[in-house]
Amino acid sequence: MAHLPPQALAQFIDHTLLAPDASREQIATLCREAAEHGFYSVCVNSGQVPLAAQQLAGHSVKVCAVIGFPLGAGLSDTKAFEAERAIAAGAGEIDMVLNIGWLKDGLFAEVQDDIAQVKQACGSVPLKVILETCLLTDAEKVKACEICRELNVAFVKTSTGFSRSGATVEDVALMRRTVGPDIGVKASGGVRDYPTAVAMIEAGATRLGSSSGIAIIGGAQSAGEGY
Questions:
Q1: Which residue of 43, 66, 96, 147 is surrounded by the most CB atoms within 10 Å?
Q2: Catalytic residue among 14, 95, 114, 171
Q3: Quick check: pTM over 0.90?
């Protein structure tokens, strides 16, 4: 995808800051950068949504909130309530972590209900479901994607960025093959430079979660540190 210049990647990027010690000043900076560079959204913890929404009032940049983050192991109704409250506070997209333990135990009906409860709480707001691919077998990744496809979520997403590793080209391609052409695939975790970003898009990603968005659109050729 050499024809895709670095700046054109801005609309693929959820400009991300999920550190537990993120300050209000850092969130405000994240929002200013997103507005300046034309990123699709900022991705923050739900407690930061009111500030981000205030900072981005009047801009086209969306506020994306993570839910049940980063473990996904909370009660389903708690996740749904967090999503509902985040949307009320100004979130325009929701990224939830599915219940990884349930998936690995083969409790597929429970996994589906967990996602369905959050999706219902989201209403018309797009829901992305984080699989945490580094903890799953390929068969489990496929099953998670099949559940998400059946529920018609907006996106499946590779990773939180807080576990053993992040997105891989192979996982993005597997997810794209499984969900088909109509559901988004978000690559997140370790997407920190332009070549990696392009590789993820070529593999089927339609959104990138990264704390290195400015480096990516600047054409950075080697990864730095961060989400």
A1: 43
A2: 95
A3: yes
